[in-house]
TrEMBL record:
PANTHER family: CONSERVED EXPRESSED OXIDOREDUCTASE (EUROFUNG), CONSERVED EXPRESSED OXIDOREDUCTASE (EUROFUNG)-RELATED. Residues 6-123 form the Gfo/Idh/MocA-like oxidoreductase N-terminal domain. It comes from Kribbella yunnanensis. Belongs to the Gfo/Idh/MocA family. The keyword Oxidoreductase applies. InterPro entries: Gfo/Idh/MocA-like_OxRdtase_N, Gfo/Idh/MocA_oxidoreduct, GFO_IDH_MocA-like_dom, NAD(P)-bd_dom_sf. This is Gfo/Idh/MocA family oxidoreductase. It holds the Pfam family GFO_IDH_MocA. Keywords: Oxidoreductase.
Amino acid sequence: MPEPLRILQVGAGGMGRAWLNTIAGNRDVVLAGLIDLDTALARSAADEHGYGAVPVAASIDELAASADAVIDVTVPAAHPIVSATALSHGLPVLSEKPLAATVREGLQMVAAAELSGKLLMVSQSRRYFRAGNAFARQIAQLGPVGSLSCEFYKAPHFSGFREEMPEPLLVDMAIHQFDLARKLIGSAPVSVYCDSYNPEWSWFDGNAAANAVFTFANGTRFAFNGSWCAPGLETSWNGRWRASAAGGTAYWDGDNAPAVELVSGETRVAELADEPEEIAGSLAEFVAAVRSGTKPQSEVHSNVISVAMVEAAVQSAATGAVVRIDDVLTAAYTEAIATASDTAVRACLESWPDVLKTLEP
């Protein structure tokens, strides 16, 4: 049995504590250090989770030599610098979503990963629900998919930055559903039309509701209808999904085992596999990829497409027009070159003959 991967975790806040529990439950990893700008917070979190002997620090530089990999659980704005720093030390990275706040930053992170030759993976945890994976298997057996839809209706009172964002639903939440749609459809998104708005009773400053329709390269349409100010009859945090395909229709309520009705009229309820879920699933795939050199789901070249879907939806909502994903990527590529502070990153970006040929659907 191989030695456990020595993990540095960066970030000791609320989500960081969830990751500490996940690391403790995985025999293939061991916590080598906990990093946070607030070292007192890091010490407290480590002690509370049984890691009293684990060192804490304020930067990756202090503990990089003792680690095999990094888990980035910092605030989204810090993801690019944390990931780039870890990669520069030759450490593969598993980053919480989102990869970056903008596609421009995401492309610079793609270049940083290429330069380091190390894995940069994003933890899109909703790809690892057992019921969601069963839903994906059902859809794959139905033949060509005409339409996929997701309804997402919740009424959370977060307080803080989410309630002050211009587009809280699209930017902070919808990437989960957009990314999962990519997995379920298995094709590249081409364009989107989106309308975002804020109901008069909303407690959010920005647009807490949105309707978006994506067109994919294989002709499939994905419709997302959602709201974060929808009290009553709320959906799962995963949303409520329906896929209409040549061989029938598959349905998933977001929590329980999905069901499918075939053209013949036969109805089947899926069996769920015994596999790690949510961030435990992300961590298990990350470890396997680091050890084997295989490419995991949500590797940076792929995940930046999900970030582009969000950015395109926001642009469409602002302009009232259909926005092409290709145009978002191309504009971000040009900006990424112009704003890259690292000359090696800039040179790497400039070496790409066509940004879309470097990325993956």
